[in-house]
Amino acid sequence: MEKTISPEERIRRAEEIYYRRKSDNNSVRMSSRQVRDNKEKRQFSLYKKMIIQVLICIVIYLIFSVIKDANYIFSKDVLEKTKEFLSTDINFEVISGQIGQFFQENKDKLNFLSSWIKEDKSNEENNEEVNQTNENSETNSEQADSKANEDVDNKQENTQTNTNQQNNEANNNTNEQSESNKTNSTNGIGGASDNEASISASSSSSSAKKTQMQLDAEYIKKNFSLVVPAKASITSRYGTREATSIVSANHYGIDIGVNTGTTVVAAMDGKVSLVSDEGEYGTHVKIVNKDVTTIYAHCSKILVKTGAEVKKGQKIALSGNTGRTTGPHLHFEIRRDNRPVDPELVLTDLKRSIEK
Q1: What is the count of structural domains for the chain?
Q2: Which of 6, 134, 197, 213 has the most crowded Cβ, counting Cβ within 10 A?
Q3: What is the pLDDT of residues 87-133, one digit of tens each?
Q4: Contact predicate 141/205, CB 8 Å
Q5: Orientation angle between helical segments 191-208 and 107-168, nearest 10 degrees
Q6: Could you tell me the residue range of the domain that residue 326 belongs to?
Q7: Helices (H), the chain
Q8: 3: alpha, beta or left, given left = phi > 0 and alpha = psi -120 to 50?
Q9: Rg of the chain over all Cα atoms, to the nearest angstrom
Q10: CATH of the domain at 251
Q11: What is the DSSP letter of 329?
């Protein structure tokens, strides 16, 4: 008589047969516990997906409700302005013409900026050239001094040998030597040639000591006639000075301390090449005559226009306090081929006329 089997036992045996068959297919035996765990995980993942979908629906509902309530975004004014903007016909030819006109009107300012950059570069190059010429002049002066010392030593040796010979010779020979010395002196032999050599050496050494700025100053004085642009005391001279947040370290001109509104005259004849109020110089004007340029900066008003011909002593501006300054004054520069020249080297009467 067969033994009765409980339902739980039947389920257990059925699971074992299922796992046995599955293990035969996958060559992996899984327990009933693992199967239950997988079922629980699948059920949890389904719950998770359902929760995410519900949250997404809630977010979409909130977005639509916000848009529906925000009437301003889709108001009539906004829609009309949007349509007006989209219907506007953009004419690129007119825009390009306006851009070209802007550059044409500001051409002088753009040229001034480019020339200002070139001048700064040329000033740096000129300073390097001046330093190099100073070094060359020092070496030349040292060589000239050494040559002069050698000539003096040779002269002393020659004089000593001559005196010894004269003491050893007889009186007759001394008389003949004195006569020959007289004739030699009259013929310009000996001392005369030494003097000429010393004069030529001194002249060559003096010319070698001249800097490029000194040569430029001599050239300007020889070929041009200049006057003082304004009569007052010099508050800052040419050259290096203690730099501050306003004052630059290298001063390429002189500052004449005049009050605002003082008359400024042209230092020389020439043509007005630039009138501008841009940059550190403030309101300034440039006057060019061949390769020489004079600059009058920090003015309050310019009385001449670009391209105008001016005469020496003509009223060209009023002094002021524009640009990068510490007070009202006139900044005056002289340049030759963009090389700065100390105005006090050119205007020999500058100090005397100012003190008057």
Answers
A1: 2
A2: 213
A3: 776 667 777 777 877 777 777 777 767 777 777 676 677 667 666 76
A4: yes
A5: 160
A6: 219-355
A7: 7-26, 32-69, 76-87, 92-105, 107-168, 171-186, 191-208, 212-223, 343-346, 350-355
A8: beta
A9: 49
A10: 2.70.70.10
A11: B
